[in-house]
Amino acid sequence: MYLNFKSLLPFIVVTFLVGCGGGGGSAAPVVEENPVVEEDPVVEEDPVVEEMPAFAVTSENYTEGSAIPLLHACAALGGSDTSPQFSWTNPPADTAKYVLIMDDETEPCGTGALACVHWALFNIPSSTTALAADVDISTIDGTVEGNTYIPTTDYEGPCPPSAHTYNTTVYAVDSSMTAIPANSSFTRSAFELAYDGNILGQADIMGTFTPSPSSLQETVSVSVAANSNGSGNVYVINGEQKASLTLNSGTTYTFTHPPGHPLKFSTTADGTHGGGSEFTTGVDTSASGSTVIEVTSSSPVTLYYYCSIHAGMGGVATNSGGQASGY
User: Is this structure's pTM higher than 0.70?
Assistant: First the structure.
């Protein structure tokens, strides 16, 4: 068979192009690039700053907000007026001295400058960071005691008619503060106002005290002596002839007296000798040599104690109307 070459030419060309990759030349292999991995930005952490421990005061006898033991309360409520133990740590730099003030802002005490101060210690040296229970202040060089609410210059334990709160603050003061004299009177608030520029820091501890009903009792010893201002005999209380007394509402008093001079109460001076009558509400005279009176808010504001046998022996007894023997 005769084949026409020209007629086959297109077929040959197509075959050639297909075999050679067709019109685009030989294609280079596609190489995929490695994907770009974005790294998280480096965050620099702030340097760790260690906080200095806070200036703090503690007591071995009670913790923050807890009850102050009876041992540290007043004698009238069954305590011993023994000062608590205190320690303080981490005082501010450059502390030269310390001041400790314990006061009560529960009614009938006032607040701020009118608080009832129970203990005030001034000029405590910086080397002293603890006070033993029932501490002898004279053993701490330069330290003096300020006035309490009574006023005395000694520790006065809680003596409230009801639940009261007692705040004790230790102040760290600088060297520019002059020494505070003994018998100075400062509540915590008054001290902070007066020495604001000298206080470097302060540490606080709070305690409470609630008297038990049976603790609100007092015994008053009454003797008899010749009247130094006249004739006859008179009652002597706390070394004072015909002493004026303060009776506190909510307290039961037991007056012990010589049996031959029975002590009574009246709303009239000198009682039955002065034309009055014996006051008997809440009074028990059944035991020889003893007169017991329960003083309440409904008791008369003014009573008089007198001897039922002998005239002119007694004095006045005022009902404080709601205050126990202390705060």
Answer: no
